[in-house]
Write a structure and sequence with these properties.
This protein is α+β, with helices and mostly antiparallel strands. It has helices at residues 64-88, 117-130, 145-154, 171-178, 187-199; strands spanning 4-5, 9-12, 21-22, 33-34, 44-47, 51-52, 98-103, 109-114, 136-142, 166-167.
């Protein structure tokens, strides 16, 4: 059991009330009663306070939800910076490895990376087992961690909030993901996985 409370803050819009009166009779018998009305107001910071753990790198205890949100925010910031670097230097090579986009049995799209081709096959098999069935390989791009971070940043509006590498299968996302198709060096890995998936439960 966690002995700490999360020290992160959420921004919320609190309810506020107006003084407008209803003229219809209330159940209590009064001819008028005060109406509570929500209106848009300025957001305020509210301490989370959920059960949390404390790690050596933390400034304060943090719950799983805020820890995941912080990790996603850091990844997006790295992706944004990497994209800016590439706009200035388009010839800059990507880190070794491959970034992949797969459609899960649930219909969601997962975008991840593997540093080598043998690890790419392991990723496909691991997702097959973890998500309970065949995954559809939509694309495999050349480039490892930096390419993955850029892709996550570009598709951030489609992200499933609680799952950093998983995205809703919007048509715009599918079109973007499949634009690069399967990298030639990775085609035999995809073929091997498909053959393995045909014989797997």
């Amino acid at each position: 059991m966690n002995d700490f409370a999360c020290g992160a803050y959420d921004w919320i819009t609190p309810p506020s009330f107006d003084d407008e009166l209803k003229t219809e009779p209330a159940e209590c018998g009064h001819s008028e009663h005060r109406r509570l009305k929500l209106r848009e107001d300025k957001p305020v910071r509210v301490l989370c306070g959920e059960p949390a753990d404390f790690r050596e790198t933390d400034m304060s205890p943090m719950c799983d939800r805020h820890r995941a949100a912080l990790r996603i925010a850091k990844t997006d910031e790295h992706g944004r910076r990497e994209l800016e670097y590439r706009k200035k230097d388009p010839a800059r090579p990507f880190a070794p490895g491959f970034t992949y986009a797969i459609r899960l049995p649930s219909g969601l799209v997962r975008i991840g990376k593997a540093d080598r081709l043998d690890l790419l096959l392991r990723r496909f098999k691991a997702h097959h087992k973890s998500y309970g069935g065949r995954v559809e390989v939509l694309a495999v791009y050349e480039g490892g961690e930096d390419r993955e971070m850029i892709t996550h940043y570009l598709l951030r509006d489609f992200r499933v909030t609680s799952l950093g590498e998983t995205f809703y299968a919007d048509l715009a996302l599918i079109s973007f993901a499949t634009r690069a198709d399967i990298h030639p060096e990775a085609q035999h890995v995809v073929d091997y996985y498909n053959a393995w998936a045909d014989e797997s439960p």
